Every structure is written in C-alpha cells, then in structure tokens.
Amino acid sequence: MKADSTSSPRDPEDRWNLRSDGEPGVDGHLGDFRRGPAVFSLYRLGSDFPARADKFTEYLLDVDDGAGPRECCRFTDDADDVPAWNRSWNGDEWCPWILEQARARIAEPDTG
C-alpha cells in the first residue's frame, strides 16, 4: 500500500480517537470548544437517538490539555440535574462557562 504524502497519523482526521470512557470519539460527538490549552469535547451517551420522552439524555464532557482525554463532567438534560464534576474540576471557576458552552453545543451540535 502506498503512503499518502498529504496525510499523517497525527492528523485528527486520520486518528481513531477515543473518549475518556474508552468508546470511539465519533460516537455521540456533539462538538468541541477551547479555553486556553484545554479542548473540551461533548458526547451524547446511550443508544437512544433521539432520546425517549420518558428518559433524560446523558452527556459526557471530556477535556484534553495535551495529555489525552479525561472526564471533566457528566450531566443530563434534566433541568434539576446537578452535574457530576470530576474531582479536579469540582468547584473550578471555569465550571459555569464550561456548562454554558456545552449547552450551546447541545442546542446546535457540530455534526459536520
């Protein structure tokens, strides 16, 4: 097989990325956003698409600051839900901004 000189295994399009939970990074991906060196990736969890009316949709938010994806928080679309922040993010001053960005991706997913 001939190598393509325009692609590299380091190109994001050519890598098989994994979420922090070990699932493929393409499964449920709703979009990314960045703050400083941190890139946040949002995923819809579960196999219900769209979600059933009697079940809340669950989300995983990963963060990668160059050391690979790690779980930042998990939350649902229940208005009364309190996000479950990873220990290192719990109480961080970025948390309200992070949730605002995540909810914007849920409202308008980047499916391109």
Which consecutive residue ranges, at least 5 long each, have pLDDT under 50?
1-15
> What is the approximate shape?
globular
Quote the beta fraction: 25-35%
Could you give the order of the helices and strands? EEEEEH
Give the distance, in angstroms, between the N- and C-terminal Cα atoms: 29 Å
Structural class: alpha+beta
Number of helices: 1
Using only C-alpha atoms, the radius of gyration works out to 15 Å
Task: State the helicity in percent bands.
Answer: 10-25%
Describe the biggest sheet?
A: 5 strands, antiparallel
Order of strands side by side in the largest beta sheet?
1-2-3-4-5
Number of strands: 5
| Average predicted local confidence, pLDDT | 82
